[in-house]
Design goal:
Helix content: 55-70%
Strand content: under 5%
Oligomer: single chain
Distance between the termini: 76 Å
């Protein structure tokens, strides 16, 4: 092996060590040594709505608000409740772990949905008559329909199983009255 080739190999090796050291120092300088996962937000704390523009943003914030309200009532994080509502099996697991029966879960989800309606009204996202109708519907829906509403807030307005009985035409009309 020639001396030139050996020097290039050493230089390449030393260059890779230097690059590794620079990466480690940059990582430490950016706070990498003290990383801690972000804490989940307390679902009982009021979370202000951003200025919702259109139905999709309203529905997204409605869902988050409903999950917060139900999670607060149950004493768990919003993320824990969202995972629990994903499937029937995860809901059963949640019920066993947190000693929650279907009636208590239904009350918590309805409370969360009612909180979401109030938050939407406070944010100016929905007007009084629509809020009143939504509250009446929420108070009487079965647990599975309440869970579907948390998963898909749009189901309160549209689709075959619409809680408020609006079809696609009604949904289009509703969007005209939103902020």
């Amino acid at each position: 092996m020639s001396a030139d080739r050996a020097n290039r190999g050493r230089l390449l090796f030393l260059g890779s060590i230097a690059a590794s050291l620079v990466l480690v120092v940059a990582y430490l300088a950016a706070g990498g040594a003290s990383y801690a996962p972000a804490k989940t937000q307390d679902p009982c704390q009021h979370r202000a709505w951003s200025n919702p523009e259109g139905l999709q943003q309203i529905l997204q914030q409605f869902t988050l608000s409903a999950l917060d309200g139900a999670a607060c009532k149950l004493g768990v994080s919003r993320e824990t409740l969202a995972r629990a509502l994903a499937t029937q099996e995860s809901r059963e697991e949640f019920a066993k772990r947190y000693h929650v029966d279907d009636a208590e879960l239904a009350r918590a989800i309805r409370a969360g949905l009612l909180r979401a309606v109030s938050d939407a009204e406070e944010a100016g996202a929905i007007i009084g008559p629509l809020g009143f109708a939504a509250r009446q519907a929420i108070r009487s829906i079965p647990l599975d329909q309440a869970i579907e509403l948390v998963h898909n807030a749009g189901s309160i307005f549209s689709g075959g199983g619409s809680i408020l009985g609006l079809g696609e035409e009604g949904l289009g009309l509703l969007e005209k009255f939103l902020p």
